[in-house]
């Protein structure tokens, strides 16, 4: 298939964001000026990139670093996903704020909330110290975890340790190729060390622009372990999509990354995906 034909296949974006940062009036925080598109921009980018289903966490709960308000962000998230077609949610959990566990327990019953989002870097805690608490919760609630990975507090190998201890908990260690030390193999190594077949990565990284990172990863761990993620609003969603459309991998690999793996991991979205793709 040509890249244009692949692009006509709707995708599932498992790692996206929308909404403002928790920046107070008059407070200067430069990235907020360019990284906080609202719902209208999200919907436009989904259409441009051919994304049928998008799973989001709200930026208000993550940024600026150390100042996110996840409790309020989760309330705003649910209000939005109830209105937006094809838009689902990750409820943010910050283990240093116990109230977010209670809130997440309640919100996980919402049909459009598909799991929990953790971000050790933005919430300023090491996963090595708090992973047990997070994984105990996820195992009890039967939910999937998506996490930032690749920096000191969130090394993929550390998540692998907990994933191996909790075989019922699926984890997406996001940002394939991200490594604070310049190494682009951390996510790959963690998946190779995973003994429970419950660890995945996604393409939501600036490293995806490297000429061969997608191809290298598929050759190393197989396309079944890689999901499409854009990290919208931090990155331009259509450019993340075309990177997969034009990758030097097989059509079957591209389909796995763009939607098949997500439909397998999130059966809840299958009916919506099929409805969105009917007649295409």
Detailed description of the structure:
The chain has 11 helices and 8 strands. The chain is of the alpha/beta class and 280 residues long. The protein has one domain: TIM Barrel (Alpha-Beta Barrel). Strands 1-2-3-4-5-6-7-8 form an 8-stranded parallel sheet. The longest helix is centred in the middle third of the chain and has 15 residues.
Largest sheet: 8 strands, parallel
Return the CATH class.
Alpha Beta
Number of domains: 1
Shape annotation: globular
Rg measurement, Å: 17 Å
CATH-defined topology = TIM Barrel
Helix content class = 25-40%
- Secondary-structure element order, N to C: HEHEHEHEHEHEHEHEHHH
N-C termini distance: 15 Å
β-strand amount: 5-15%
Structural class of the secondary elements?
alpha/beta
CATH homologous superfamily assignment: Metal-dependent hydrolases
Q: Major sheet: order of its strands?
A: 1-2-3-4-5-6-7-8
Tell me how many strands there are. Answer: 8
**Based on the structure given, which CATH architecture is correct?**
Alpha-Beta Barrel
List keywords for this structure.
single chain; TIM Barrel; 11 helices; 15% strand; alpha/beta; 280 residues; 8 strands
Quick structural summary:
This protein is an alpha/beta fold and 280 residues long. The protein contains eleven helices and eight strands. The radius of gyration is 17 Å and the shape is globular.
């Amino acid at each position: 298939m040509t890249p244009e034909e692949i692009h006509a296949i709707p995708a599932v974006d498992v790692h996206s964001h929308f909404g403002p940062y928790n920046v107070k009036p008059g407070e200067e925080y430069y990235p907020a000026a360019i990284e906080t598109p609202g719902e209208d921009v999200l919907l436009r980018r989904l259409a441009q990139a051919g994304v049928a289903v998008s799973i989001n966490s709200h930026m208000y709960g993550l940024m600026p670093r150390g100042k996110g308000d996840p409790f309020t962000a989760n309330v705003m998230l649910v209000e939005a996903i109830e209105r937006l077609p094809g838009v689902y949610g990750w409820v943010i959990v910050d283990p240093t704020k116990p109230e977010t566990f209670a809130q997440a327990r309640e919100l996980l019953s919402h049909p459009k909330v598909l799991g929990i989002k953790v971000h050790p870097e933005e919430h300023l805690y090491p996963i090595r110290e708090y992973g047990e608490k997070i994984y105990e919760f996820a195992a009890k609630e039967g939910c999937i975890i998506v996490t930032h990975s690749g920096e000191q507090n969130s090394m993929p190998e550390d998540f692998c340790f907990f994933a191996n201890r909790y075989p019922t908990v699926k984890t997406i260690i996001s940002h394939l190729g991200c490594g604070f030390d310049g190494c682009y193999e951390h996510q790959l190594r963690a998946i190779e060390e995973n003994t429970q077949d419950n660890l995945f990565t996604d393409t939501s990284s600036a490293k995806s622009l490297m000429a061969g990172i997608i191809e290298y990863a598929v050759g190393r761990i197989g396309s079944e372990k890689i999901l499409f993620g854009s990290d919208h609003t931090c990155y331009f969603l259509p450019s993340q999509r075309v990177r997969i459309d034009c990758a030097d991998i097989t059509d079957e690999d591209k389909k796995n990354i763009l939607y098949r793996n997500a439909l397998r991991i999130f059966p809840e979205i299958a009916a919506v995906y099929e409805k969105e793709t009917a007649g295409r």
